[in-house]
Amino acid sequence: MPETNTAVSQTDNLRPMVHAALFVALISVGAFIAIPIGPVPIVLQNMFVLLAGLLLGPVWGTACVAVYLLVGMAGLPVFAGGTSGIGKLFGPTGGYLLGYLPAVLVTGALSRFLGKTGFRDILAMIAGSAVLYSIGVPWLKLAFSLSWGQAVSMGLAPFLLGDAVKLAGAVIIAKKIRPLLKE
Q1: What structural domains and CATH numbers belong to the chain?
Q2: What percent of the chain has pLDDT over 70?
């Protein structure tokens, strides 16, 4: 009987790692779909980052985003538009990339704390998005020596409508996928 318990515990440990690896891939694919509208492109990365927080929770969600960032910094073309390298962290999108870590952590923690319903998922993702923009916009301001108004008009305002659509999509996806994941 001890062998069965060992097999079960190995499966229990493997499952979240596989889910995290799948989210690394999804975040990477979301980065390839990039619409350049200025120094910060429209991408699907942020939807998958926030979705990772909802579905994987704060620990595994943060782990998968950390792996994604490390893979991109190591040179694999997983950042927006198929770019890579540590230099991306020092450019206009660096604050958004680094902001993914606390954004997924906040989204995952709030999702666990508030409960997993559509409305509560939206609240958790709005909070995660607020964290993301609170890091990304000031970083953009510093990277380009912009005024606050310019930074907000280039790094926040153009993305709000699209983010609302992505958050709605993420809620639908989370509702469909949650029953398939064992937590």
Answers
A1: 2-180 (1.10.1760.20)
A2: 93
